């Protein structure tokens, strides 16, 4: 079994006034995570937006274990944290303190605070599991639990006329897997649909992470961010993620259809807590 003990790379919180001064490369350095899934590694980033840690794990022949990163100053990763996992690759398994959970494609897992050992495996290295990970501080130990894609409250939304026919799956939320502050799910767009999260919105009460997947290597998503009247964009490839501050919109349009995970953390877990901006007011 491979393990890797490192210091977590840190992304500082950036204010709106600072964001306005950033060029393309600096914007990408601050808000885009370009590498999520590397063979037999766990790739994580610590952001000071709600002290969230996010990234990915892709085991091949060996298991990879969540290490006690030295700058967390704890004996094990989840001593004061909780963890959400969604598998966007082939079938694999996650073993938490000796109990193993099989995760098929798009299955989700919540791992409770205090869990000491978390190991990730793939069933077949030719089609490895790709685990998207998101962790937030936790104050209570809720049970570790799995939720299959089919049980994740699939909801059809959108229309062909607005190019946003999609299905939303909710995993960790008030009506699903219980957590302290994590809210996680994913959206699958139908072929021919390219827009997500429009009209755009912000929510001052929590940050968000978008992880894009099922996007062909020749295509990209133009992810819109920034204040509603001062928008910027990031060009995002498959298996990349965007950190979205509480003051920023988070929306996107692809050059083809795609899917994305949305993960949130903060003081409000109400999925509908959104401050919408009419499309006509975006600048």
From TrEMBL:
It catalyses: 5-dehydro-4-deoxy-D-glucuronate = 3-deoxy-D-glycero-2,5-hexodiulosonate. CDD domains: cupin_KduI_C (cd20491), cupin_KduI_N (cd20294). Keywords: Isomerase, Metal-binding, Zinc. GO terms for biological process: D-galacturonate catabolic process; D-glucuronate catabolic process; pectin catabolic process. Binds 1 zinc ion per subunit. Zn(2+) binds at residues 201, 203, 208, 250. This is 4-deoxy-L-threo-5-hexosulose-uronate ketol-isomerase. The gene is kduI.
